[in-house]
Specification:
Mean pLDDT: 82
Low-confidence stretches: none
Shape: elongated
Largest sheet: none
Structural class: mainly alpha
Radius of gyration: 30 Å
Length: about 180
């Protein structure tokens, strides 16, 4: 016990985290993980290289790529397997416009979402948004003009439309950022 001023003992100093790790290592015989260097040896495969080519935030852009792929699939389904309710309500030209806007918007968006190509993605959002809006209006119209409840579909279409509007706002906000 050491003494400080007068006869007042100095309180013991608490051990640091590193000292505790070293003491535990002395008892167990294992090296402490916090002081052990971790080798960063990784093979750079083709998937890693492709992943690194995607602009940040990568996972966000990949999720939008999946959304655009779904929009493309919906447009292709309208082209090749047109639902009767859509073709009866919209007619031939309306169905063609719906299919074209969804397919073109999905393909353009999927091509340009992974890189900083705001101009093209904005066009994709407008096209896909137009297709979703056409289908939303068609669904709401069918809800009020025919039997059955189509509000469940309308809710998901409204969510998709709001999601596209949100992406457009995000693009416009970052479009003028220097360095992009």
């Amino acid at each position: 016990m050491t003494f400080g001023h007068g006869n007042v003992p100095t309180p013991p100093v608490a051990p640091t985290h590193e000292e505790l790790l070293l003491a535990r290592a002395a008892v167990t015989g294992e090296l402490p993980l916090a002081t052990e260097p971790i080798p960063q040896v990784r093979k750079r495969g083709i998937l890693r290289k492709l992943w690194n080519k995607i602009d940040e935030p990568r996972i966000h852009r990949v999720m939008w790529l999946i959304r655009y792929a779904i929009i493309t699939a919906a447009g292709l389904l309208v082209i090749f397997m047109t639902p009767r309710a859509i073709s009866q309500e919209l007619g031939t030209w309306g169905t063609a416009v719906l299919a074209l806007t969804l397919t073109a918007g999905g393909v353009i968006g999927a091509l340009f979402v992974l890189r900083h190509k705001w101009f093209w993605e904005r066009i994709a959002i407008w096209l896909a948004g137009a297709g979703v809006a056409i289908y939303f209006v068609n669904t709401v119209s069918l809800h009020f003009s025919s039997e059955g409840n189509r509000l469940f579909q309308a809710c998901f279409l409204a969510w998709a439309l709001i999601s596209l509007i949100d992406r457009h706002i995000e693009i416009v906000r970052y479009e003028v950022e220097p360095g992009y």
